[in-house]
Design brief:
Two copies of one chain form a homodimer.
Chain A: E1 6-10, H1 13-25, E2 31-35, E3 41-43, E4 46-48, H2 50-59, H3 77-84, H4 95-109, H5 114-124, E5 130-133, E6 140-145, E7 157-159, H6 160-166, E8 173-179, H7 190-196, E9 199-202, H8 207-216, H9 220-226, E10 231-234, E11 237-238, E12 241-242, H10 247-253, H11 260-267, E13 273-277, H12 284-289, E14 293-297, H13 304-316
Parallel strand pairs in A: 1-2, 1-9, 2-5, 9-10, 10-13, 13-14
Antiparallel strand pairs in A: 3-4, 6-7, 6-8, 11-12
Helix pairs in contact in A: 1-2, 1-13, 4-5
Chain lengths: 319, 319
């Protein structure tokens, strides 16, 4: 029987970096990654799972470090031709990346659940970490905009990718919801792995739109609350800003200060320990005042070595 | 108001060659092509319309004369990666060709009918001929095999592309049917153009699986029967064999001799004139005994000039 020694809750780029560190200090086969699917979308009839793909490509050594998404050495023949046809080309799909979407979509249409398709893709890519979509059911992050944009007037609700890619997350947000969450069942192995894990790592992913959908799936938050002492989160906010993406904006717009203290406040009910960057050392007391242990360490994963060093801190940080 | 001066009933390669001749002798905007969609398929979640694409690529000057399908100068990055993933790669989709399928599928998913998507694709490709899918409704050619094959035991029914591509049409056939035909309505403009046409050309396409599905759509055969004198067919059978594909085998297996006389017998109720190749000149009498006028001419379109010469014969051949 597989014992999930370490379970990581994952969004995209930040989680992929954290995992690339964790696999250097823990046997990859002992790691289970529970991955957000709220960013998933249908485009051109294809099912696209950006976070699953970012994690897979990174662990397979295929990732493009320049973009933070897609495949290294990618070509763009299909997209260029699609642009010529006047097709939707705002969401860039490289040729090799497209093969993943064709494969996934074909398998899903044949009746396979996303978890089984993901297992097959990671097996083919030689990824030893077990990747679990948090749910096989439809779960879609929807964003209500607070400002006028190319998508429409204020108050309009758009898909996550409309907000994130099409609008480049430059528009203020009024609300976020996770469509399908009330009926989304946890995927096979998700709750079991969280129940068994020696340590649960919350990767430095966006608390609102990456970790939020994972928590929204029935049972996940409850298990984490029950095992809170084993849960270690890495703050995605460093010195009051997100290293990448709109986590800081979203937190502020939705009423939480965009600091490590704000992260601590959001996570306190189900996280025992928060790892914050040295740049935020002076906030450690305020973090602990929220009821979490606070560990200060370098958290910016600018190289695989720094990611591995952070992984060692995270594994040793548990209460 | 558009008057359809010339309407061509079309399958794939043979029809594309015929059209490439017709556009040299008739203003392309005066030509309407009514195209088979029985070969259409869903693969990897994408809607693929092989005959519409073959005709479009040929008229756009993008066709690959070596293969008879796909796009010239094609690359195969997506397919190679899909093979690495263990995906279904028996139906070869080139990178540029894939852009067409992504565009079509995206538009169909957004609620556009196939006819509107086809109009947009041909407009973008600079094709002046009006291409009409014979129907916007699902119509799928299904083939019952008479021999064991990689698809299963004798008696199994498979999709047209399973028969045509996967089994390379090397397996005997017991029956052909057009799934969806009873409820398939003619696409916008199909019956109107047939009713108005000065001449209807039946391209040298497979009578069973290319012209068959076109005839199976409600109203098409009735209009053609009523206007029989204006209908001119080019025999796809030359000297007892199909120039390309399984027309000869299929005709024989389904009980019609694979000769120009067999074609005449199949077409007699709704075709007034049959153009046969010089190689079949000695059968002209037998063709006329079936009740059609017979015109003998070189029908092998080995160059655009020969295709244009045949087009002149066809246009002049009407009863």
């Amino acid at each position: 029987m597989l014992v999930a020694v370490l379970v990581a809750l994952c969004g995209g780029v930040g989680a992929a970096r954290m995992l690339s560190g964790l696999v250097r200090v823990v046997p990859p086969a002992d790691i289970t990654a529970v991955v957000n699917v709220g960013d998933d979308m249908e485009l051109h009839g294809l099912h696209i799972s950006p976070d699953l793909d970012t994690v897979t490509y990174t662990l397979a050594g295929m990732d493009n470090p320049e973009t933070g998404w897609g495949v290294s050495g990618e070509t763009w023949t299909v997209m260029e031709e699609l642009s010529r046809l006047g097709g939707e080309d705002w969401f860039r799909l490289g040729d090799r990346d497209l093969a993943t979407h064709l494969f996934r979509t074909g398998q899903l249409r044949a009746g396979e659940p996303l978890s089984a398709v993901t297992a097959e893709i990671t097996r083919r890519r030689g990824v030893a970490v077990r990747l679990l979509p948090v749910t096989d059911d439809p779960l879609r992050t929807r964003v209500t905009l607070a400002e006028p944009s190319a998508c429409g007037p204020p108050g309009i609700e758009v898909s996550f990718q409309d907000y994130f890619v099409r609008l480049r997350h430059q528009v203020a947000v009024r609300a976020v919801r996770f469509e399908g969450a009330p009926s989304a069942r946890p995927g096979p192995g998700v709750l079991e792995s969280l129940e068994e894990a020696v340590t649960v790592v919350v990767c430095p992913s966006n608390p609102v739109v990456s970790i939020g959908p994972v928590l929204a799936v029935d049972g996940v938050r409850r298990v984490l609350e029950a095992r809170r002492a084993r849960v270690v989160a890495v703050s995605p906010i460093v010195a009051g800003a997100a290293l990448k993406g709109p986590a800081d904006r979203l937190m502020a717009e939705l009423g939480t200060e965009a600091t490590v203290v704000g992260v601590a406040r959001l996570y306190a009910p189900w996280v025992g320990t928060l790892v914050v960057d040295e740049a935020d050392a002076r906030h450690a007391g305020d973090v602990e005042a929220e009821g979490l242990r606070c560990v200060v360490a370098p958290t910016v994963m600018s190289s695989p070595e720094r990611a591995a060093a952070l992984a060692r801190v995270v594994i040793g940080a548990r209460a």
